[in-house]
Amino acid sequence: MSSSSRSSGAPGSGRIIVVSNRIPKGDVPAGGLVFAIDEVLTAAGGLWIGAADPTEFALEGLTEIGSGAYDRATFAITEAEHSGYYLGYANSVLWPLFHHRPDLLNFHDGDFEAYAAVNRRVARAIAAIAEPEDLIWIQDYHFLMVAQELRQLNVTNRIGLFLHIPFPSPTDVMALPQVAALSSWIAAHDVFGLQTKRDVTSANEMLRHDSKASLMPNGRWHRAGHQFQILSFPIGIDAVGFEETAKAADVPQLQLAAKAPLLIGVDRLDYSKGLVHRFKAFGDYLSRRTEGAPRPTFLQIAPVSREDVTAYQDIREELEQAAGSINGAHADLDWTPIRYVRRHFDRAVIAGLYRRADAALVTPLADGMNLVAKEFVAAQDPDDPGVLILSHFAGAAEQMEDALLVNPFDHGSFADAIDRALHMPLAERQERHAALRVSVFEEDIAWWTEAFLKRLRGTNRT
User: Please, what's the b/e burial string for 371-390 (b: 16 or more CB within 10 A of its CB; e: otherwise)?
Assistant: First the structure.
């Protein structure tokens, strides 16, 4: 790697080595996690490691794909490993389990072995280039074993992992065939970061059942001679940047009737997002709507993801059936209540739609954080803001108590919340929005990165 990746900070300081499954191979997009990592590495110097496109064979080591203020490099992965590591163990076992859906676990012979092989290859690549003062910052569930593999390679660097998805409950986690090893994977880190206090509670409860782990008076855990911390770091957004984007955005022509309310949802097409429950709750609201009342339109944008995973094919069919049934029951010649779009839109278009919307439905059944809630708040005009309807099961609910909080499984009360949002007086909308803005703008993406890295730098290597 190039010398430009070397930190110019205090004597003895090292690089930041970031590991993520996805890595920008071209220009870095504005906003989001990718933007935040780029900002950190540009300021501090370092190396960003991600997966290369799958090939027939996988070579050892890293392939440099960019340099400048910091380096970017990829590790190799085969087509078979992509199937077993990514589509298999990561997204057909860990993803549903960590989103509290053990009923959707899909085990295949060889998937865990592929996951372990990729994690070991990444660890060997890091061990070959890491210098003693480098910080190693791992992102998400794709690399739960990397820290343990690094320790077995005698790497003593400070290692942190941030899990962007929820942590499974103590009962759900028992469905993982490798549950006996999960504690040792976590314990190999110095800081194991989670989104919410609720997640920290679940992780701590799991560790309490590990006879080799003990909770120390200072709040740290001790296992196999190593101390580590489990802490919550609720991820934020580039609030100022997103607000400016929303202000400057041209609102698409939606061809709605004058004064017709617009509700919006923006999610990846995923069973964890509660989209079918959301459609049904909106259908309940429409059934209660009085004659002559304004005719709202619910715009749901849900780009397709992971089409090769069976559970995603099923949720797509179920959602299309729900949309068709509700529209068939309530639509008129000049009104389609649900507009369901399965394509990606640019960030500026989404920001403009948020600013135009009267309410946002952010109602996952399980979610690590859900940044759509924060983007919606940042995009609003403070003088005439829309209303955020937020699930209790979104991690964001811990910070955003002034939203209309709902149980997405209870379609009746969910429908009541939609009605309340569309009839909420201006003064109440302004008051709620002002309160929501505080955490969105104070605990933004820069705050998140600084908080995690400060904690990681401050750990004592043991």
Answer: bbbbbbbbbbeeeebbbbbb
Separation CA 285–CA 318 (nearest Å) = 20
Where are the extended beta strands (E) located within 41-112? Answer: 46-51, 62-66, 71-75
Domain boundaries, the chain: 3-236+445-457, 239-442
pLDDT of residue 37: 86
> What CATH architecture does domain 3-236+445-457 belong to?
3-Layer(aba) Sandwich (3.40)
Residue 28: pLDDT band (50, 70, 90) is low
Asked if the 239-442 domain carries CATH number 3.40.50.2000, the reply is yes
The predicted structure's pLDDT at residue 306:
63
How does pLDDT run across 295-314, given as a tens digit for each residue? Answer: 999 999 998 876 666 667 78
Provide the 3-class DSSP secondary structure of residue 29: coil
Q: Is the pLDDT of residue 255 over 90?
A: no
Q: What is the pLDDT of residue 26?
A: 75
- pTM of the predicted model as reported, rounded to 2 decimal places: 0.93
Choose the weakest-confidence range: 27-31, 298-302, 359-363: 27-31
Q: Please give the order of strands across the beta sheet that includes 387-391.
A: 338-341, 297-301, 262-266, 359-362, 387-391, 404-406
Q: Which residues of 86-123 are buried (b: 16+ CB within 10 A; e: fewer)?
A: bbbbbbbbbbbbbbbbbebbeeeeebbebbbbbbbbbb
Q: Round to whole Å and give the CA distance between 152 and 119.
A: 13
Task: Enumerate the active-site residues.
Answer: 164, 367
User: In sequence order, what DSSP letters do the residues of 233-271 get, joined into one string?
Assistant: ------HHHHHHHHHHPPPP---PPTT--EEEEE--S-G
Q: 400: which 2 tokens?
A: 């955003």
254: left (phi over 0), alpha (psi -120 to 50) or beta: alpha
Q: How far lies 162's CA from each of 3, 349, 386, 444, in Å?
A: 27, 29, 32, 16
Q: Are 107 and 91 in contact (CB under 8 A)?
A: no
> Kind and range of the H or E element at 407?
none
